[in-house]
Amino acid sequence: MAYQTLLTSLDQGIFTITINRPDKLNAINQQVMTDLNNAMDEVYNNADIKSVILTGAGPKAFVAGADISEFAGATVAEGMALAKKGQDVFFKIENSPKPVVACVNGFALGGGCELAMSCHFRIASSNAKFGQPEVNLGLIPGYGGTQRLVQLIGKGRAMELLMSASMIDAATALQYGLVNYVVAPEELIAKAISILTVVNEKAPLAVAACIMSANAVFNENVDGYSVEVAEFGKCFGTDDMKEGTTAFLEKRKANFNGK
Ligand code: COA
Predict the structure, then answer these.
(1) Distance 219 CA to ligand 1 centre (A)
(2) Residues annotated as part of the active site
């Protein structure tokens, strides 16, 4: 499917989504949000897609935030609607049954940092910069940033970044646990591909169950241990669990079919 503001490609089960507004540092306007929503529907529904890389076009930015030009003149109700729509799309990314990795290739500010945090994990290029500069605009993060930043780096560090609007570099993001790896810009996508190539060989329903169970830690409406019991049990009803255990006992490589 073609998108107005995204470039997409599918290679060996890895679907790459590139936000493509480099002249605006890939700022998320309403069209980008709609396109991201539709691209995630494609991820959910296309059986050929096993995992996802999310990145930004150009050498400078992953995403420099929500498009500030769309904020002027908005009312309180419109502000709330904007946040709700963004949160819904980012929940769709976070709850995707297929792994989504952010390749942060430059500025990840405001909504860009929030977008990266909604992915299952992040890899940064050495020139990446992270921050929540909304207080500079008389705003706060609205796409889940106040919640996920605390989850990922702890309350004290998150509070400082939220209140000060300070940016951190890739090395600090690594030290904080915000990203899993920092690599040279030209190695960024290759690093993600090498990890996802390994993940894509695993049992897809079990990978999805890992995502759902780990996400349950942060969902106060469910008991994560109960989710784990249910997901563990469900695995016993899959072809892949039979294949995985049989292959181990037969000392051969498992061949999973995702059923
Ligand atoms: N919304 C809308 N447009 C944005 C944008 C955003 N969040 N971030 C960057 N842009 C646009 C700029 O307006 C500029 O457009 P123009 O060439 O038509 O004037 C273009 O992208 C390039 O940005 P510029 O500011 O010239 O680049 P820079 O290298 O001097 O600075 C940043 C880079 C990231 C420090 C700076 O763009 C910035 O502070 N952006 C806003 C970050 C922010 O507050 N994000 C949170 C939003 S809630």
Answers:
(1) 34
(2) 114, 134
Tell which one of 25, 82, 132 to mutate to probe ligand 1, the residue whose CB is within 8 A of the most ligand atoms. Answer: 25
Pick from 21, 24, 62, 130 the residue to mutate for probing ligand 1's pocket: most ligand atoms within 8 Å of its CB: 24
Place of tokens 């892949």: 240
Query: 């990795």: which residue's tokens?
Result: 101
Query: Locate tokens 């106040």: which residue?
Result: 146
Q: Given 3-state DSSP classes, what are the helix, strand and coil percentages for the chain, each rounded to the nearest 5? A: 50, 15, 30
- pLDDT, tens digit, 9 for 90 and up, residues 134-159: 999 999 999 999 999 999 999 999 99
Amino acid at 38: N
Exposure on the CB side of residue 142, measured as CA atoms within 13 A? 21
Which residue owns the Cα nearest ligand 1 atom 13? 24
| pLDDT at residue 184 is higher than 90 | yes
Q: Which helix (H) or strand (E) holds 213?
A: helix 204-215
Return d(Cα 66, Cα 114) in angstroms, integer. Answer: 10
Residue 132, beta-bridge partner list: none
